[in-house]
Design a protein that fits this description.
alpha+beta
Length: about 110
C-alpha cells in the first residue's frame, strides 16, 4: 500500500482523484466501494479546476476532503494528493463537515 500518492491532472481532476485514492489504498479504481460522487460533486470539481486557466494574479484554490480512508487535496496548481489517514486520526463528524475551499487567506465550508 502506497500511503501517499501525488498525481498531476490536466483537464479532469475528478478522474485523477479516483485514481490517486485507489492507488493509495492499493485497489483497482473500478472495484472500490466508495464512489467520488458520494463524497463530492465530480462535475463541480472539474468546473473549479479544469481545464486550468493560468492568468497572472489568479488566486490559488485548494479543496480538501476525505474519501475511502484518505485525506485528499486538490489544488489549482494541478496537483492531487491522496494520503491514507492515520488510524484513529479521523475527526468526529459534525454538521458543518463538508468540502473546505481555501482561497487566499479565507476559508469557506459548505
Amino acid at each position: 500500500m502506497n500511503t501517499k500518492v501525488r498525481r498531476r491532472f490536466t483537464d479532469n481532476p475528478a478522474v485523477t482523484v479516483v485514481e490517486a485514492v485507489a492507488e493509495a489504498n492499493d485497489v483497482d479504481p473500478l472495484e472500490s466501494d466508495v464512489r467520488l460522487y458520494d463524497v463530492i460533486d465530480p462535475d463541480a470539481l472539474n468546473r473549479l479546476f479544469g481545464p486550468r486557466r493560468t492568468t497572472v494574479g489568479s488566486p490559488s484554490v485548494d479543496v480538501t476532503f476525505s474519501m475511502a480512508g484518505c485525506d485528499v487535496s486538490v489544488s489549482s496548481d494541478g496537483m492531487v494528493v491522496a494520503k491514507v489517514a492515520e488510524t484513529g486520526s479521523v475527526p468526529e463528524r459534525t454538521e458543518s463537515d463538508g468540502v473546505e475551499l481555501v482561497e487566499s487567506d479565507s476559508v469557506v465550508s459548505r
